[in-house]
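During the second year of the project, the team shifted from modelling isolated chains to modelling whole assemblies. The rationale, set out in the original proposal, was that interfaces cannot be judged from single-chain predictions alone. As a representative example for this report, we include one of the complexes processed in the last quarter. Its constituent sequences, exactly as entered into the pipeline, are reproduced here:
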Amino acid sequence: MQIHVYEQVREVTPADFADYLDPASTAVISIDMHRGHLDDSPDCPCPAPRARDVVAPIDAFHRAARALAVPIVHVKSVLRPGGADDLAGIPAAWRRTFPLHVGAIPNADAHAIEGSRWTEWVTEVLPQDLRVENKRRLSAFYPTDLDFLLRNQRITTVVLDGGFTDCCVLNTAFDANNHNYRVIVLRDLVRGTDDHLEAAALSMVSLHLGLVMDSAALLAQWSVGSRAGR
Amino acid sequence: MQIHVYEQVREVTPADFADYLDPASTAVISIDMHRGHLDDSPDCPCPAPRARDVVAPIDAFHRAARALAVPIVHVKSVLRPGGADDLAGIPAAWRRTFPLHVGAIPNADAHAIEGSRWTEWVTEVLPQDLRVENKRRLSAFYPTDLDFLLRNQRITTVVLDGGFTDCCVLNTAFDANNHNYRVIVLRDLVRGTDDHLEAAALSMVSLHLGLVMDSAALLAQWSVGSRAGR
Amino acid sequence: MQIHVYEQVREVTPADFADYLDPASTAVISIDMHRGHLDDSPDCPCPAPRARDVVAPIDAFHRAARALAVPIVHVKSVLRPGGADDLAGIPAAWRRTFPLHVGAIPNADAHAIEGSRWTEWVTEVLPQDLRVENKRRLSAFYPTDLDFLLRNQRITTVVLDGGFTDCCVLNTAFDANNHNYRVIVLRDLVRGTDDHLEAAALSMVSLHLGLVMDSAALLAQWSVGSRAGR
Amino acid sequence: MQIHVYEQVREVTPADFADYLDPASTAVISIDMHRGHLDDSPDCPCPAPRARDVVAPIDAFHRAARALAVPIVHVKSVLRPGGADDLAGIPAAWRRTFPLHVGAIPNADAHAIEGSRWTEWVTEVLPQDLRVENKRRLSAFYPTDLDFLLRNQRITTVVLDGGFTDCCVLNTAFDANNHNYRVIVLRDLVRGTDDHLEAAALSMVSLHLGLVMDSAALLAQWSVGSRAGR
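Output from the structure prediction step:
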């Protein structure tokens, strides 16, 4: 099967990565595909416009995963109204650093506020899907119950899609790795700050954390496994 | 003062980052400066030769930090003999992925084994310094007691040096950020897999996680603060 | 001031426990005061009828605490519909052990299901209060974001009320202690499985974990501190 | 098989607790059997003399467990010299509360200091055993790597022995439960502050957290399972 190692396509033997490829012990973690990043309006509080391109492909991949009984866990940032988590406490670092690069973000204070439209999902979330709705900073794992949930479901492999490749996706890949999950990041279904940092983050994943693959390649492997009666 | 934002030098006002610059609430976290990465021999189990260049400069920075009563916390990977943490359990992902890029690592199984010479510090570790000696994967925070220790010492800012910029240092910066520490990564005192990934990791830190500075610039700020009677 | 040490009233000097008594760095953690434990109906899924007696006194204490600007954090068990957290995963231990003592619990499967009436608060929850609504097992701390929230608010002392004294309250006191919070359990505002285990749990708190006090005694101390211009 | 539920002997069907009884997925966690609690001298820094009675029986049980390939994990409190974890940081609560009951503890400041004789094991620790030597407060789980280690070894059931039943053992049982381990506390191999609190802690375990058994009863079940070819 084809994986991507530091921007190069590589052919590897699936049997060498069998522990990564069993849909029965896998969950898809879809990160921050909500209106607060993806809304196409001037008051979008934390714009990540590049990720709009992957909404439809992510939905298609999730449909295929559900058909194989792979659970989808949708994770998003939600902050308590009043700012106890962030602006009225110890503010998230990105509020001061990211504008040094992209300029002032006019509506940033509205980001992820519980109950606001900015927390609405943009991708399809079905009733049978699982939701983690208290991501507070960058990782899908801390301070959420994602690890507790995955362990309860006896999941040992996580497949990541969503955004930012070089921020929340990469952070989640690090955390999953440290908790001993096998990690796959889907190269075609993540988007970063820009092409350069997106590619670099995928290179880091490929060297230190797990497999970087296209979703079609993963589905092909899952399909082979299913046909083999696993 | 000068910081680095996505490979550009930027002049910012120290008062805008006052919470990053108080030595009284700061600790230096020095990551994985041990013989298992830095030994100049063919059986070095996980070679990171680029970081040898920063051994002396890190020692010099630590001496200056100690003179200002900033605690130094040395963190390193140590694995239980017999492999219960790793090879005889769920093996660390890098064991299969990193060789896809650098080729087979002959002595990788000896990496970080408790009691072996590969866990010896290469930088100066003084009796008054603090040590965290059970890093098991990539982060200095999980599954160690680093957060517990820092909180006990009422530390709110961490300054990172050591290696790999694009792996353990970046992972530690993410974790520190998620735990609400103010994060500074010292650009001249970290080394990555190569120039490209090192620069990309520093760019990610500068956009999402905190300040990227040279150690001389930070010492200058600390010195100003000390003179001001803080 | 009066505290309770192993079922004995003891007079101690407030100055010896000054770090426990500053309302400016304190939060009240109110545990599991919801309909799933307190509803007076035969289909209450996890009955804790003894705690009904403390609903009104807890509300009164919370009003007094709010008047001193002490934040109230209401924590409750909520489980994902479908059972991914519990019945359809690795079931909570109490489901098999507690009935060995109290007999079968007819509607236990309905306990804490998200969106059901069993998760409704019984005590007053005001808009300015804070809520942690993803307790999954016994502790208010794991796997929730309570520690993250308290740290963000620079809280260093927690005052516990609610139920069960010998289960979720005691567990939360242990966790708070391990995270270095100063812990106060309000003897008159917690209720246990029965008198015996309630008293034993308070004795354990008083020996190992912190102060056991009546709410009136704590309010008196807070009031003295406020008058002293703290 | 016989278990103990709230001070009563109960006969239960092993098949109803099959997930508790498989030695292949079980580890023994032995808590704080070190000289700092058990030394029979006036300068013992944190005396727990009642637990001296279980040293030999614990050793015997561990030998039987090893014969069935059940790993033994010895956990103990160790504090950094200089007090950064405790006396020179945020002191552990018990230092002020426990003396309210037992009177001043003359040598308490020496408790658990790394490198001192007070950290020496009193029970047998063999080279093939596992050790967790950075317990800092009461739980064997936080802030240690015990959960990481157990997960790595695919352990899902923990059997607890050691001391104090109403303190570190009970806390560890709560934490294990919250992390979804099946929990067994060995009634004959734990000792508490006194008979009363020891019995109460075992009652709490039996209602909320798992099984309370005698070690002989557990060994008999393990033996049956082994004969059945498991």
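Chain A touches chain C through 24 residues (CB under 8 Å). Residues 21 and 221 of chain A are 7 Å apart (CA to CA).
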